[in-house]
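User: For my dataset I need records formatted as: sequence, then structure tokens, nothing else. Please produce one.
Assistant:
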Amino acid sequence: MHFNPYGGSAAALAAALVNADPRSGPEDLLRLLRDHGYKPLGALDAAQARELTDWAARLSPVFDHTPDQVDLVNALLAGTASKPYISTHDQRAPHLHFAPENAPTAHRVRAFTAAGLAHAVCDDPARLGRCARPDCRTAYVDTSRNGRRRYCTTRCANRVHVADHRRRHHTDRAGAAPAGQVR
């Protein structure tokens, strides 16, 4: 599925913030933003880092497939008080901004991620999810062609499949007759 920049990269950044350690400091969060291609970057102080970790806690329930998903995203959008406009900064092609370019980084990230989740929910809300492996609550944005992703990574999927195989194999062996005997 092809997402626009807000529905794709912004929603992916929202998932990354949800998955980040809530004790992340300014440098960790700036690295996370950089790793997800968020530009332009500005300074991020301790108060803004706390603001982003608090924001991540508000983003989190959107990935849970609850009946109030639209209401949750609308509350996020209202919390950003965004005013969309077209920007052409840094010789880039015209693109949408949901917060002023000179606003603090945390403010811009909040508007960006709220808009991204709104686009994703409008395109296909089932594309936002949580890993199906027990004990893993990692949030993800499903950008696969068929939209059937259930795990955050191949590693989690493999763990589940190996555990299922071992359980079936153990069950099969437990019901089998001892070697040399016929039941």
